[in-house]
Amino acid sequence: MILTEKEALEKWCPKSMVCKSHQIGNNPSLCGINRHREGDPLQGTNCIGSNCMAWQWVKKSELGFPKDQSLPREEWTGECGLCNK
């Protein structure tokens, strides 16, 4: 899905995790989760856009080519390199 970075930052990322502590018997434990039991995303699990190593810039006018630095940054588009394979 081709998006502006601003749009991507509003989307949930299935690879994002939040550290949660819980108790197993007498042993405290940590685990990574990204959704509530009801299925709603947890705060902090949205896409991080170009701060992610998988983010790929795509030129709006010619999809599939690198970003066009002559365009204002808010017009650059990109996609998740992990979810589109």
**Helix and strand string, N-terminal first?**
EHEEEE
Given as residue ranges, the uncertain stretches (5+ residues, pLDDT < 50) are none
How large, in whole angstroms, is the Cα Rg? 17 Å
Strand line-up in the sheet with most strands: 1-5-4
Tell me the span between the first and last alpha carbons.
11 Å
Structural class determined from secondary elements: mainly beta
Q: How does the overall form come out from the CA principal axes?
A: elongated
The total strand number stands at 5
Give the helix proportion (percent range).
under 10%
* Percent of residues in beta strands: 25-35%
Domain module count = 1
> How many helical stretches?
1
Average pLDDT, rounded to a whole number, is: 76
For the sheet with most strands, the description reads: 3 strands, antiparallel
Describe the model.
The protein is mainly beta. It has one domain. The chain is built from one helix and five strands. The strands form two sheets. The chain has a three-stranded antiparallel sheet with strand order 1-5-4. The protein has a two-stranded antiparallel sheet with strand order 2-3. The mean pLDDT is 76.
Features:
28% strand, mainly beta, 1 helix, 85 residues, two-stranded antiparallel sheet, elongated, three-stranded antiparallel sheet
